[in-house]
Design goal:
- By secondary structure, this protein is of the alpha+beta class.
- The protein is 33% helix and 14% strand.
- It has 5 helices and 5 strands.
- Helix 3 packs across helix 4.
- The N and C termini lie far apart (42 Å).
- The chain binds a DNA duplex through helix 3, helix 4 and strand 5.
Length: 166
DNA sequence: TCCAATATTATGC
DNA sequence: GCATAATATTGGA
C-alpha cells in the first residue's frame, strides 16, 4: 500500500500525518526532529491534499480544547477487529469526558479484557482524533500514553477534564 | 503452538 | 502504598 507523509504545523509543534489510499492512517506527535523531508505539496494527489487540509484544521481545533466539527476520513483497516471496536468506543467519548479502561472493556462486551483494552489504546495509530488520551485508569490516574504522559495531561487539561495528580 | 509482554484491576499485606 | 494473581489480546520464537 502506498503511504504519503505530510507534516502538520501547530502551535505545539510539527505533527506528522500519514495517508493511505483510504484516508488518514497514522498521526504522530512532534518528533523533535527538525525539517526532514516529507515532500509537502510535492506529488500529492488532490484527494489527499483535501484530507490533509481537513486534518490540519481539525487538529488545531482539537489542540485548543474545542470539538472539531469535521474530521478527515480515517483508515483503521490495519488494526485487528478487537482494536477497531475499542477505537470506535473511544470516538464516542465527548470532550472533557473520561472513561476508565474497565468501562471501555464493558462497552465492547468483554468486561474482563481491560488489559487488552490498554493494549489496543497503545496500538492506536491516530491519537487526538481517536481520543485514547481520554481513557484513564480506574481511580482516574493517568495510565500511559504513546506520545508521553506529558501530552496526555496537556490534552486533558485543555479539554477541561480533571485528572488526579500522580 | 507456546511464551512473554501489556497504557489494568481487585485483593491482601 | 506496594506486591501479587487473574485476565484478554497480541506478536514473536
Amino acid at each position: 500500500m502506498k503511504i504519503v507523509e505530510l507534516t502538520i504545523p501547530t502551535a505545539d509543534g510539527e505533527f506528522l500525518a500519514r495517508y493511505s489510499a483510504k484516508g488518514l492512517c497514522e498521526l504522530w506527535f512532534p518528533d523533535g526532529k527538525k525539517g526532514k523531508k516529507a515532500g509537502d505539496g510535492a506529488q500529492v494527489s488532490n484527494q489527499i491534499r483535501e484530507w490533509h487540509e481537513r486534518t490540519v484544521e481539525a487538529l488545531n481545533i482539537a489542540l485548543k480544547g474545542r470539538d472539531p466539527k469535521t474530521f478527515p476520513p480515517v483508515d483503521l483497516s490495519n488494526g485487528t477487529e478487537f482494536q477497531q471496536r475499542v477505537w470506535e468506543v473511544l470516538r464516542t467519548i465527548a470532550m472533557g469526558r473520561t472513561l476508565s479502561y474497565g468501562e471501555v472493556a464493558r462497552r465492547i462486551g468483554k468486561p474482563k479484557a481491560v488489559r487488552a483494552v490498554g493494549g489496543a489504546c497503545g496500538a492506536n495509530p491516530i491519537p487526538v482524533f481517536v481520543p485514547c488520551h481520554r481513557v484513564l485508569a480506574a481511580n482516574q490516574r493517568l495510565g500511559g500514553f504513546s506520545g508521553g504522559l506529558d501530552w496526555k495531561r496537556r490534552l486533558l487539561a485543555r479539554e477541561g477534564a480533571e485528572v488526579r495528580a500522580e
